[in-house]
């Protein structure tokens, strides 16, 4: 067992992992129940959430004195007793009580009382987080109320952050930000068309020019491949979404159909009749 002081980021990561595990289980539960009649799960959703949360705590805190998120990071509670385990379980039931009372629609006094309790807990959580950021211990309010301390469950090497590592991370994050802003501005259709014209082995496909076009339920947009929204055409037999066609023509005045490579300057964007 190590006496190394836990980093704040490690404790916060454990809380984040616990929340993600709970959300993942709830998503699986919703996926398995989507074939049930509509509204079948909604009335008992608070109970299902409580069962999942208590099951996670029973199989983690009650057995190993650490949550699953803490186990993934090799940390645990050092002074967890059976009485504190029971209080820990009850402390995680407040959200269920609050949601269930909202569903039952009790009297105005009860609602006001629960709202005041909720606001007090929010304030206490804020104060506790401020203390945690200052001292680096007990990130959760329930941990501070029960006096729970965290420690490494196994011997771990201390984490050292060198300036070289931090500089590399900052450089990489800056590069990602640049890509996020630049990639949407690149007109890859224009680049592809230019490269295709310089390819001596490229053969332009044949296309059929139609006087009228119709769209059925099986028609797909030649650009995005989805069902066309506000169907339009550019002179060939293919159908586009209005936004797909107009957006590409605005970005590239020589935009061609991505399927047949047709471009008709006289017919840039025209409506398509729809057959139901």
Automatic annotation (TrEMBL):
InterPro entries, per this entry? PEX2/10, Pex_N, Znf_RING, Znf_RING/FYVE/PHD, Znf_RING_CS
What reactions does this protein catalyze?
[E2 ubiquitin-conjugating enzyme]-S-ubiquitinyl-L-cysteine + [acceptor protein]-L-cysteine = [E2 ubiquitin-conjugating enzyme]-L-cysteine + [acceptor protein]-S-ubiquitinyl-L-cysteine
Q: Which GO terms describe its molecular function?
A: ubiquitin protein ligase activity; zinc ion binding
Q: Name one GO cellular component term.
A: peroxisomal membrane
Which parts of the chain span the membrane according to its record?
A: 113-133, 170-188
Q: Which SMART domains match?
A: RING
Q: Indicate what this protein is called per its UniProt record.
A: RING-type E3 ubiquitin transferase (cysteine targeting)
């Amino acid at each position: 067992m190590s006496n190394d002081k836990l980093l704040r980021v490690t404790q916060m990561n454990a809380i984040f992992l616990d929340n993600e595990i709970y959300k993942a289980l709830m998503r699986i539960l919703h996926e398995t129940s989507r074939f049930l009649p509509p509204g079948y799960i909604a009335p008992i959703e608070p109970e299902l959430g409580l069962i999942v949360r208590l099951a996670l705590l029973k199989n983690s805190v009650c057995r190993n004195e650490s949550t699953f998120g803490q186990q993934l990071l090799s940390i645990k509670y050092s002074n967890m007793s059976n009485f504190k385990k029971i209080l820990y379980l009850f402390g995680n039931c407040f959200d269920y009580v609050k949601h269930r009372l909202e569903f039952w629609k009790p009297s105005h006094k009860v609602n006001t009382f629960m709202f005041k309790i909720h606001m007090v807990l929010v304030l206490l959580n804020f104060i506790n987080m401020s203390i945690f950021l200052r001292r680096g211990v007990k990130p959760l309010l329930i941990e501070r109320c029960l006096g729970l301390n965290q420690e490494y469950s196994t011997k771990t090497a201390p984490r050292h952050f060198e300036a070289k590592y931090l500089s590399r991370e900052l450089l990489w994050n800056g590069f990602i930000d640049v890509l996020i802003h630049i990639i949407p501005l690149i007109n890859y259709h224009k680049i592809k068309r230019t490269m295709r014209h310089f390819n001596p082995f490229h053969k332009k496909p044949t296309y059929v020019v139609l006087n009228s076009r119709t769209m059925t339920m099986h028609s797909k947009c030649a650009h995005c491949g989805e069902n066309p929204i506000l169907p339009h055409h550019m002179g060939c037999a293919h159908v586009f979404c209005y936004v797909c066609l107009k957006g590409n023509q605005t970005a590239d005045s020589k935009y061609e159909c991505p399927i047949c490579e047709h471009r008709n300057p006289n017919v840039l964007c025209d409506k398509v009749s729809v057959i139901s």
